[in-house]
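Quick one:
INPUT:
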């Protein structure tokens, strides 16, 4: 099973969720704008793969990242985020 996380490094205290999924054998794939060397210590090694984009506000860049990870690992079971900011942003794009 594959799950894609948008901005998996934020908020910093939520990495335990990603760690637990990885422990269950889930391929946890990340997309974000932060360099991996700035990830919280607990998050390092929990991601199967990470795709860095220049700007998470650039829908096309994030779309290409999702497409790439889906091609490489297979269709994701879901796309998750650990903060309401991105959920509200996407809902506004969809008219919600």
């Amino acid at each position: 099973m594959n799950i894609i996380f948008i901005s998996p490094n934020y908020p910093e205290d939520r990495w335990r969720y990603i760690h637990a999924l990885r422990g269950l054998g889930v391929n946890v794939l990340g997309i974000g704008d932060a360099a991996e060397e700035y990830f919280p210590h607990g998050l390092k090694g929990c991601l199967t793969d990470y795709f860095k984009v220049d700007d998470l506000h650039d829908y096309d860049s994030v779309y290409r990242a999702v497409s790439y990870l889906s091609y490489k690992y297979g269709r994701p079971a879901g796309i998750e985020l650990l903060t309401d900011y991105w959920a509200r942003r996407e809902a506004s794009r969809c008219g919600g």
